[in-house]
Amino acid sequence: MEVGFLGLGIMGKAMATNLLRHGYRVTVWNRTTAKCQDLVALGATVGETPAAIVARCRYTIAMLSDPSAALSVVFDKDGVLEQIGDGKGYIDMSTVDAATSSKISEAVKLKGGAFVEAPVSGSKKPAEDGQLVILAAGDKKLYDEMVPAFDVLGKKSFFLGEIGNGAKMKLVVNMIMGSMMNSLSEGLCLADKSGLSPQTLLDVLDLGAIANPMFKLKGPAMLQGSYSPAFPLKHQQKDMRLALALGDENAVSMPVSAAANEAFKKARSLGLGDLDFSAVYEVVKGAGGSGQA
Ligand SMILES: NC(=O)C1=CN([C@@H]2O[C@H](COP(=O)(O)OP(=O)(O)OC[C@H]3O[C@@H](n4cnc5c(N)ncnc54)[C@H](OP(=O)(O)O)[C@@H]3O)[C@@H](O)[C@H]2O)C=CC1
Ligand SMILES: O=CCCC(=O)O
Fold this sequence. Notes:
Layout: E1 2-6, H1 10-21, E2 25-29, H2 37-41, E3 45-46, H3 50-56, E4 59-62, H4 67-75, E5 89-92, H5 98-110, E6 114-117, E7 120-121, H6 124-129, E8 132-138, H7 140-153, E9 154-159, H8 165-193, H9 198-207, H10 213-223, H11 233-249, H12 255-269, H13 280-287
Parallel strand pairs: 1-2, 1-4, 2-3, 4-5, 5-6, 8-9
Antiparallel strand pairs: 6-8, 7-8
Bound molecules: NADPH dihydro-nicotinamide-adenine-dinucleotide phosphate (NDP) and 4-oxobutanoic acid.
């Protein structure tokens, strides 16, 4: 099977690599062309533009940073829309809001193409290991055709019905994750400032009812001040912002998430946006007084 792949950031590179390793023929495009080279070394072909990729491939997957990137790659000159049509499928796996996804879906359908949104849960390592959780919605026929590829990329895929449901599910999940990361950061600070060992706190957490892979993976690195980006903080803040907008639309009060969003915004303002989202710990530590009484 031949697929096109747009966007070779942290996630896109790992996902396209996985498809290549499982025998897919993959044609890649990335805004910064140099990032295609590692994929070429693994057997990928490079397309000049998103339109050229869609012209060549029956199925094109996108994994882009945010709503503005997702829209640009579809609607701008040399974009997806120029070549999408009958018999072609476009699958956007980026984390965006439902309105962005609907806009893309309507435009693709107007040209005769099929569209599935399929954001993912799971970060760099699960993407490398084909262990993502895929939250798909939209054209069911295209979804069914993509299941073999989703089975390579993920450990489980959900079909959630109409366009927007995948985007919304992803935002709810990441809203919870962002709040948990802030809570963990506060807990580590509180343990430290009150004379406890933060490492012992992590050990205690890992044995109890709120043990989870995120605390286990990120906690020790946070204590070392190590924030090599798996999930960039700027994207987590984007997801909090979009989840809060979803809360606004549905009149759901979310004070915990709103506070977490403020911490991520503060981290961005301090230049931490390209670090892992766990770097919000630095903001929480700062707010805690950095060693002052
Ligand atoms: N990292 C993670 O753990 C996870 C991320 N996600 C989501 O997946 C998506 C990708 O994340 P990730 O790979 O980490 O992000 P990266 O920041 O590593 O990569 C972003 C990609 O988007 C491209 N891009 C950005 N702006 C534009 C634009 N205007 N036009 C064209 N291309 C553009 C970048 O191109 P260029 O190289 O030129 O900058 C790059 O290929 C995001 O929506 C994120 O929220 C979902 C699950 C987990
Ligand atoms: O959107 C990013 C999610 C990261 C994760 O699920 O670990």
